[in-house]
Amino acid sequence: xxxxxxxxxxxxxxxxxxxxxxxxxxxxxxxxxxxxxxxxxxxxxxxxxxxxxxxxxxxxxxxxxxxxxxxxxxxxxxxxxxxxxxxxxxxxxxxxxxxxxxxxxxxxxxxxxxxxxxxxxxxxxxxxxxxxxxxxxxxxxxxxxxxxxxxxxxxxxxxxxxxxxxxxxxxxxxxxxxxxxxxxxxxxxxxxxxxxxxxxxxxxxxxxxxxxxxxxxxxxxxxxxxxxxxxxxxxxxxxxxxxxxxxxxxxxxxxxxxxxxxxxxxxxxxxxxxxxx
Length: 277
Ligand SMILES: NC(=O)c1ccc[n+]([C@@H]2O[C@H](COP(=O)([O-])OP(=O)(O)OC[C@H]3O[C@@H](n4cnc5c(N)ncnc54)[C@H](O)[C@@H]3O)[C@@H](O)[C@H]2O)c1
Description:
Layout: E1 9-13, H1 18-29, E2 33-38, E3 49-53, H2 59-65, E4 71-74, H3 84-104, E5 109-115, H4 124-128, H5 140-159, E6 162-168, H6 180-183, H7 187-200, E7 205-211, H8 223-226
Parallel strand pairs: 1-2, 1-4, 2-3, 4-5, 5-6, 6-7
Helix pairs in contact: 1-7, 2-3, 3-5
The structure holds nicotinamide-adenine-dinucleotide.
């Protein structure tokens, strides 16, 4: 930890999930106490961790779980395209409950796990150029993440909280294909983003940043993250040799990639159109 960093009591929603599981060792090493909130129990809690089972959309559960916390990392929710009703309940209502519980408990620092898919219909070139990208979702999931960002802005503006909406590229231990050589967020860099959110943000406000590593082939501008003290250090290119790039289809014209194509259906119902133009 740097001199500016201190130990926190962190509520980590989605504490049993993939990204949280990769993040937890870094938070423990930094000396934080971590509450693992999830609808399923997180495995193998360490001495500084506690397990809290409940629904992120349950405001009472969230208010109780966040009592005494100094920061919230909100990863809990549905991470892919799903039925509209489920995404609304879990990702939108769940984010509202998280922010409302943070506010009621006086927790100033909140990191929200947004996604590239909140802005998936923007050309990738606009992201590289560093243009501010208003929401342009490529899916119901993307809409839920755009709503997450809107809620983050609301609570930051209304209650002078310090909220970061992190547009995560692709989490995981390592990049797995050509696309993720551009979009990867390493576990260590996800921890750097948490530390920036908890320790580096000065004035209250809502900060929308790209949550990606310092990838050689990165297609987003990372200066927004630098503005809150997030300086990624890992590079997906270190893994490029292990990736077979031959024959892989590039979906790099739009940020959402394949999700922005007509082939990627909305929701899970996929009712046929009654009128085909
Ligand atoms: N993995 C990625 O590449 C990626 C990219 C962009 C954004 N994100 C976002 O980051 C977050 C974490 O992603 P992940 O890959 O670890 O997903 P994950 O599915 O592995 O983890 C999400 C966790 O949330 C929990 N959860 C689901 N519904 C819940 C509810 N109603 N109440 C409490 N907990 C609930 C699940 O049980 C799960 O453990 C998600 O919000 C996802 O949308 C992930």
